Every structure is written in structure tokens, then in C-alpha cells.
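Page 42, continued from yesterday. The earlier attempt failed because a stray header line got pasted into the input along with the sequence. Redoing it now with the clean sequence only.
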Amino acid sequence: MKRLCLLILVSFLATACGTPFFGKDTTAGPATLKVMTHDSFAASEDVIKAFETENNVTLQFLASGDAGTALNKAILSKGNPLADVFYGVDNTFLSRALEEDIFEPYRSPLLKEIPDEFKIDSKNRALPVDYGDVCLNYDKAYFAERSLQPPQTLDDLLKPEYRSMLVVQNPATSSPGLAFLLTTISYYGEEGYLAYWQALKDNDVLVVNDWERAYYTEFSRWGGARPIVVSYSSSPPFEVIFSETPISEPPTAVVTGAGACYRQIEFAGILKGTKNRRLAEKWIDFMLSTRFQEDIPLQMYVFPVNPAARLDEVFVKYLFKPEQPAMLDPELIAANREAWIQAWSEVVLR
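This time it went through. C-alpha cells are written below.
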């Protein structure tokens, strides 16, 4: 009788829990991991699928605007995060993310493979994923058709022959835009950068909110009226790789003189308040692995931080390398970023 009662009790408990008493629940579906990104995030379907299959998870990517806009959304939702992981904050905006305390520290075991030059946050709240050089790109055909020499320096952009040719991004909403603003601060100093921007304004510079509009709408290479755009040193190889008809040379080139480009590093971090900490850690690890790192260049126009990742031959062949890319101390940026942007806005947007 006691044995029968025990069997009934075991059966009841198993039924009440909704799962078999012995063994693994085979009916449970995959968990969902939400990754907040800027709009330029991209990864190959097979790479994403590999992570999902290995970890029995469904990845949900929340494209949230340009890097600055996406970071604002992450900050506004602090304490009740919209996602588990944030990817895309760069070294121009990083200090703000750290000041707002939106990330949980995580020392990934893959960090030992990443060069120290990319590890800006000593507390490992934001882990480096990729880097790129923000530079002036120009449409080669536009200049060749007019027998006009392309600009070689920042100073050249002030010349009358380059009037109404430049499109840039707003540094308040765009990470490439902020990177270019920092380029001018590095080059002309805090005493001279506003005078430079006033001169650019006088030469009819066009300001838009994000990289996508600047490159794919306003840039003459893609049907716009502006033959000079703030983009990346890696953009020309992608013009070759993704051309609808095969081409042997990129139709664009880059101004790579000393101080004309800004070194931009992008980071990922686990958002405070995530309920999927373990899966978030695995995703960070995956982003630093060679499988994901080798996928980065052909998806997002930037370089992997893991030196073990191999680059596509076309990418290497047509890549423009800045002579001396600019970089400002993150502490200096943290102390002055908002004031610099405000001063820039008063000069350029009013």
C-alpha cells in the first residue's frame, strides 16, 4: 500500500510540473537572445545559424538607428533593457556608455587573443569586436570626368573648386560623424576646429543624420550630387566585392594623408538587467571567435580585432591604409564631447 501511494505521488508531481519526472524536457523550444545594434550591423545567415544551433537559441537583432541613436535608446531603457547585449558603441561614444553604467562586466576567455591596443575599458564592461578608419572617400569618375584633382588633405576641402562637394554626418547622431569631428579637433586643435567648420559651412558642406543616407543617397557614386563623403578606408574594396557587374578596380578612393582619418573601435557589452546572462556571455565569446571575426569584413566594412581571423584577398588588395590615423584619449573625449558637439552645432547647424 505504501509503495502504491509513493508511485501515485511521483506520478502526480511529474504531471503537476508539466514535464517528465525523469530525463530532459524535449518539448521546450529555444530561448531568445536579444541583441541591440546600430543599423549597419550585419552577419552571414550561416554564421548566425551556427550560434543558434549550438546553443539552442533564437537570436533577435534590434536595429536601433546609428550608433549614437542606438546608445541613447539603451541609456533611456537602463534598468529595464530592451535587449540582453548591445553591439556598436565605439570609442567616440564609449565614455558616455560607461558613465551611464549600462553594461555588466564580463571577462571573456577570448580576450587573451585580442591585442591590448583595442582594450580600452579595463573593467571589461565593453569588449572590442572590430575597428575601422573613418576617412574621406571620393568618387573617382566624378573627378576624372571634370579633370579635377581629388582632395588630398583636410585643408583642400576649403578650396573653391570643392564647393558643394562634401557630405558629412551629424556628430550628435552618427559615430562616423563624431569620428570626423574628432579628426578635425585632432588636426586643428580645440582652438582651430570651429574656424575650420565655419569655413566648411561657407563652402556649402551638407550635413545628414546617418552614414546610410550620406553614402547611399547623397554620395555621387550612388546617384547623389556629392562626390566626397565621410565613410571608411575599407569602403572601396566593398565596391568591388558587391558590384552588380564584375569590376577590376574600385570606383572610389580614400584620402589617407597624415591625420585625415580617425581610428574607430566598436564594442559589445552585456546590458545590465539581462535575464539571459549565460547566453549573453556565449554570444560575446562567439563575436570574438574567428568564425564571427572572419565574417565581419565582408558584412560591415570593418576589420576584425582578432588577429587570427583571415581577410578576403580582394579586401586586402584594395584596402586603403591611413598613414597616421588620429585618435584622441577617451578621457579627453569624455570630458569634452558634449561641449564640442554643442559648439559644432552652433556653428554648423544655425
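Notes: The first helix runs from residue 2 to 17.
Reminder to self: strip header lines before submitting.
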